[in-house]
Amino acid sequence: MANFQHKNLAGGRWQTFTFAQQMGNIGSEVERAINWKQKGNAEQMQKALDRGLELFDLTLSDRRLKYPQLKEVARARELVCDFLIGDNEYKSDDKFLNKYFLDFTVLARS
Prior knowledge:
Layout: H1 7-10, H2 19-38, H3 42-60, H4 67-84, H5 94-109
C-alpha cells in the first residue's frame, strides 16, 4: 500500500462510501486539477490528476458496483484524462466537468 497517496482510503475505507460520495470526492481532485491547469501550473495539475486517477481506480475496483456504474466511472475517467492531458477529442470543458461531479456531491449530501 506504500504507493497509494490515499492510504487510508485504499486500505478499505473507500468501499464504505456510497457511489455518489466516491464520485463527489473524485470530483474534488478533478476540480483541483482543472484549477491548476487554468493557472498554468502543470506540476500541481498533474499531482491533483494523479490523486483523482487513484480514486477513479479505487472506485473501479469496488466490487459493490455493477456494469452501469462501472461504465459511468470508466467513461468519466476517460473524459477527464482527455480534457486535462489529452487532445480534448470529446470537446469537454471545465464547466461541464465541474457540474458533472458537483451533481454527485449534491446527491451524496442529500
